[in-house]
Amino acid sequence: MITWQLHPFPQLTTMQLYQLLKLRVDVFVVEQECPYPELDGKDHQEGVYHLLGYQGGKLMACTLNVKRG
User: Rounded CA gap, 62 and 4, in Å?
Assistant: First the structure.
């Protein structure tokens, strides 16, 4: 079972941010061989939330979610 957490950027812990960036680099840059700047400035914009999926204490899924009005 995956446990989901939703956080705006300022509420991410240092460990959550590290896990999030590591997972994205592992999947998109390494596995999919898409070398591009992963840190694109979108993570900390107003209204952006990070949806994190944990299984057994390990981050297994993540995405950005833009909250609108």
Answer: 9
